[in-house]
Amino acid sequence: MPFIIAALGALAAVYFFVIRARGAADMASEVLDAANDVRLAARRFGFTRRTNIHPVEAIEDPDIALASLGVAFVELDKLPTQEQRDALNRAMARVTEKGLNDAEELAVLGRWMVTECGTPDQAVTRLARKLYKMQGADGFGPVMEVIKMVSEAGSGQLSVKQKEALEDIPRAFRIS
Q1: Low-confidence ranges of the chain (pLDDT < 50)
Q2: What separation, in Å, do the N-terminal and C-terminal C-alpha atoms of the chain show?
Q3: Contact status, residue 58 vs residue 113, Cβ threshold 8 Å
Q4: Gap between the Cα atoms of 88 and 67, Å rounded
Q5: Shortest CA distance to 64 belongs to which of 167, 164, 135?
């Protein structure tokens, strides 16, 4: 009888580890898929990362900077809802005059840019300055249009960090 109990225990342990290994493999494939999505989006919009330069400083397309700034603004409100993400994609499609699929890819690349900046707070400041360098004060209008459309999604209430960002963005564009 003790041999049967030991054998059943060993089988249960093997089963447990097989299930855990299968779950880990699924998680690893999801991470690789996410990394592949970022890589493909970067290639599609012509973004190339240069060594010894922060990725935000390597941005040459204002649409990438605008999408990244939109993603950072949305993420200032803790975890964004699906409604906020959809509103961001619609706003990006409208402002950049690109399709919704392109806007979604820009958002994927923008999310990566935000993670490279560390926090959404740091990303808002850095991306607003970069967008100002590329477009001057003309870039302020599209930024505010995207922010307006995103802030109307969901509850319509801005968080404290989002209100602070709304004060920082005009400062970055040297608008007082």
Answers
A1: 32
A2: 83
A3: no
A4: 8
A5: 135
